[in-house]
């Protein structure tokens, strides 16, 4: 057989067998200031043993004009430890300019599902409905993770949306 075809075939097989796997395992939202942000609903819905979707419904009582998002990844290793990134972006500037390559990755995950596709200010009901299509552009080591998202309005943390997930690098090894 042609060598190129064999290499192609092996690559497809490896890509198929090693398809990484992500499952959200818990979602915890918390308002630090209930006169600005009220979280009504923050829950995972189970589709099957290995598929869940994220649903968040919250109200911003006052308009938010100055929003920073602090994204911090944690990996479980006898308690959750900081891992890979701890990164803060100016969310209002990002929505105007789409100027942060890293935030773009996160945005591309959510843009079809949420009520947030516009520029600042944000006020009233904010929703993420049935978010489940997770495509990470990078591969993580197999393990349990926690993505801490802290939302900072006018320089002060107002609420957090924290998502726990499991990543399996290679299904064959588990
Ligand atoms: C809490 O929210 C109120 C209403 O928007 C705001 O005036 C106040 O500054 C906020 N407090 C803190 C500590 O951010
Ligand atoms: C958001 O949650 C509130 C409180 O549970 C509920 O009254 C409202 O209908 C929800 N909105 C949507 C669009 O789901
Ligand atoms: C999801 O779970 C089912 C049943 O447990 C299993 O057959 C399937 O291979 C799993 N899919 C993935 C992507 O792990
Ligand atoms: C988001 O809004 C922009 C500008 O209004 C629009 O071009 C784009 O199609 C929207 N994206 C989605 C996924 O709705």
Keywords:
174 residues; alpha+beta; Ganglioside M2 Activator Protein, Chain: A; 5-stranded antiparallel beta sheet; 3-stranded antiparallel beta sheet; 8 strands; 18% helix; globular; disordered N terminus; binds 2-acetamido-2-deoxy-beta-D-glucopyranose
Topology:
Elements: H1 3-17, E1 21-31, E2 37-48, E3 51-64, E4 67-76, E5 80-90, H2 91-97, H3 101-110, E6 122-131, E7 143-153, E8 156-168
Antiparallel strand pairs: 1-8, 2-3, 3-6, 4-5, 4-7, 7-8
The chain binds 2-acetamido-2-deoxy-beta-D-glucopyranose (NAG) (4 copies).
Could you characterize the architecture of this molecule?
The strands form 2 sheets. This protein has a 5-stranded antiparallel sheet with strand order 1-8-7-4-5. The chain has one domain (20-173): Ganglioside M2 Activator Protein, Chain: A (Distorted Sandwich), CATH 2.70.220.10. The protein contains 3 helices and 8 strands. It has helices at 3-17, 91-97, 101-110, and strands at residues 21-31, 37-48, 51-64, 67-76, 80-90, 122-131, 143-153, 156-168. It starts with a helix and ends in a 6-residue tail after the last strand. Strand 7 (143-153) and strand 8 form a beta hairpin. The longest helix has 15 residues, at 3-17. The chain has 174 residues and is α+β, with helices and mostly antiparallel strands. The structure holds 2-acetamido-2-deoxy-beta-D-glucopyranose (NAG) (4 copies). One 2-acetamido-2-deoxy-beta-D-glucopyranose binds at residues 111-112, 117.
């Amino acid at each position: 057989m042609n060598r190129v075809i064999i290499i192609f075939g092996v690559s497809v097989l490896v890509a198929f067998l090693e398809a990484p796997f992500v499952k959200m395992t818990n979602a915890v939202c918390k308002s630090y200031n209930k006169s600005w942000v009220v979280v009504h609903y923050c829950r995972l819905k189970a589709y099957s043993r290995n598929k869940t979707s994220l649903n968040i419904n919250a109200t911003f009582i006052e308009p938010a004009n100055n929003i920073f998002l602090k994204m911090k990844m944690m990996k479980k290793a006898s308690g959750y430890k900081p891992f890979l990134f701890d990164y803060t972006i100016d969310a209002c500037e990002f929505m105007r300019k789409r100027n942060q390559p890293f935030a773009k990755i996160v945005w591309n995950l959510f843009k079809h599902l949420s009520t947030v596709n516009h520029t600042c200010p944000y006020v009233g009901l904010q929703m993420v409905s049935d978010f489940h299509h997770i495509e990470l552009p990078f591969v993580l080591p197999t393990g349990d993770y926690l993505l801490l998202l802290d939302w900072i309005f006018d320089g002060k943390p107002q609420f957090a949306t924290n998502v726990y997930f499991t990543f399996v690098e290679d299904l064959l090894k588990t």
